[in-house]
Amino acid sequence: MLSDPLAVIDEGDRERARVALAAAFGRAPVTGLQPVAVGASALNFRIEVAGRPYMLRLEKARRDEVRDPPRAYACMQVAAAAGIAPAVRHADGAAGVSITDFVPARPLDSYDGGAPALLRDLGHLAARLQALPVFPAVRAYPDIVGSLLGLLIDSGRYAPDLLGPHRNGLARIREAWPRHAPPLVSSHNDLNPHNILFDGERLWLVDWETAYANDPLVDVATLLLFFARAPGQEEVLLEAWYGRPPDSRLADRLFLARLLVRLFFGCAATLNAARIGGPMAVETDLDAPTPEAFLVLLQRNGWAPGSAEAQRLVGKMALAGFLANLQSPRFEAALAG
Question: 0.70 exceeded by the pTM?
Answer without folding.
Answer: yes
